[in-house]
Amino acid sequence: MQNVKSRHATRAISTLFLAVSAVTATAAQAATVETKGGLTVRSDDGAYELNIGGRVHLDANLVSEDNSAAFGSALIPSNSSAFFRRARLTFSGKALGWEYNFTPDFAQSAGGNLPTTTTVTGQATTSSSVAFQELYIAHKFGLGKFFIGQFTPFRSIEDNTSSNEITIIERAITSSGGVYRGGISRFFLIGLGYQFNPVPNATFGVGAFNLRRDNTPSTEGTALSARATWAPVQSPGRILHLGISASQENPRGAPGSPAGNVSTLFSYAGLRGPTASLGGTTGNENARYYAGELAGVFGPLYLQSEYVHARYGQDESSALRHTNTDLYHVTLSYNVFGEAKTYNTVRGSFKSIKPKNSFGAVELVARHEFARNEDATAATAIREVTSDTVGFNYYFNPNTRVLVNYILGRAERVNGQVDKPNTLALRFQLNW
């Protein structure tokens, strides 16, 4: 199986580079090539454009299990390891009035280096394969832009922040790092979307999706999402962001089998730590999410918070027809040398800092995450999960940084049993 995947990956890479080489060679006959801030090839008439970017994220997780815990921390030794979290090339541009973006990732499968089977008792190993992240075409229509293909649904400020610009190594529990994760990878979905700016400093996006991505089975069902943001205060060093979102997911299993798992699934001590599932079973018939966002920049200080209420509809075999989970996170960062984050008015999210000193910049970070399922009744079911992270980011320059996080996790069952692992997480990141 691994040899087959390797051959497929090699063919994909070869085909990709042959295509890019052909486009570049053809465009070079009557084109402008720019290298400022990346590589861009543009035809003289402006009808065609190709931009090439990329990112490499090398992670390491050193996991310490809770030896006194009755569950959760029976981790296999390979959980503490170094791994390539992301190794992506991004090809974007335009052709005859249409925009395009396709981003293959050579480091991971749809599981994001997670095992094929993830439980609270440990993690199995898995192999990597080439998977597409964003893969869409877009066109300006009316006041905004129409998208078709695979892209990030309109929900969560964390999900609408690039992995190159997130403050903490792992995304918050209120994003695809938790509530939108479950047994199906739902960070990128295939569908249709429309986004526009109704007034200055505001965004609105709505989308309809098949509940899958390019390399997952085609029986997971459908999803809808909508998100609105507004930045009533936006000036250098002073930004206030408000946002709301709502989404619904309707998973479908094979005939005669339960529907797909769309419960909250959270690695509460880093990606390689143990996981906890809250708010559902593999019999979930639907899920609804309602979220609010509050974030802001106050000079070198950055605050980001989000609250989500998740309601899961169980199938007819379940005694409890609905379960409810409440989740929130609060993230703080402080730039030691006075840099301030800037705002992405298109996505309604924040960008990482640019060092103002030649020796770089230091950003101190902290985050508290919380999730609770009040409807959990089984003695061994997870009722509550918290995760506290502290650390720092060192920026060599705007495109290169090191992230260091220390994570204290805690999961509590209905019967009072507690698991408290901790993880030292590291990342070296280069993007262009």
Q: Key terms for this structure?
A:
432 residues, mainly beta, 1 helix
Please explain how this structure is put together:
By secondary structure, the chain is mainly beta. It has one domain: Porin (Beta Barrel). The chain has one helix at residues 2-27, and strands spanning 31-34, 39-43, 48-64, 81-95, 98-105, 118-119, 122-123, 131-141, 144-151, 189-196, 202-210, 222-235, 238-250, 264-267, 275-278, 284-298, 301-314, 322-335, 343-344, 349-350, 361-373, 382-397, 400-413, 418-419, 422-431. The strands form 4 sheets. It has a 16-stranded antiparallel β-barrel with strand order 3-4-5-8-9-10-11-12-13-16-17-18-21-22-23-25. A two-stranded antiparallel ribbon has the order 6-7. It has a two-stranded antiparallel ribbon with strand order 14-15. The two termini are 33 Å apart.
Profile the largest sheet: 16 strands, antiparallel, barrel
Q: Class, according to the CATH hierarchy?
A: Mainly Beta
Report the strand count. Answer: 25
Give the tally of structural domains.
Answer: 1
CATH architectural category: Beta Barrel
| Rg of Cα set | 22 Å
